[in-house]
Amino acid sequence: MNEAAQIHILVGGALHNGAPMKWASLGVAVREYKFDPQDGNGCVKALLWDADTTLALSVQENSAATSVFLHNLETVKRWRNGPELSETQEIVEVQALRGDRWLRENDVNVDFIYLNVEGSELSALRGLEHALGRVVGCEVEVNFMPDYFIGAPLFADVDAYLRLRGLSFYC
After folding, report:
1. Which of 41, 93, 106, 151 has the maximum number of C-beta atoms within 10 A of its C-beta?
2. For residue 165, how many other CB atoms are within 10 A of its CB?
């Protein structure tokens, strides 16, 4: 397959998420640039953020629910799988980086951004300001529940940010 038939996707939260399988069904080769603060899956070991810094990460029993935001325990304990989501195993310090800087330093241009970073989506997008001006689209997992993560941005916040940059909600 030639270079023209390849799509470059930045994947945030890649330890448990690869690029959506829908890309394979289009018959294009996919090149993923994966980021996750936990080890594994061939990722850059860092959290995408709006600055180069270190952050406290709340590692959960269910590692897919690990976040820099704490769960609201009163809310999640009411859910059937709530206890496994809310059990913090440890707090660890992790590297966070500005995605635009990494892309520039590694001479990478991405066509699409896929984020599932447990409440950190808005901060990750702020760190990808330049990339957002070049992509054809984004798929971003967002939170609609104000009492799921304490202090995390909600859908309305992410939607407003992306609309100001020419990207709009579609499902």
Report:
1. 41
2. 14
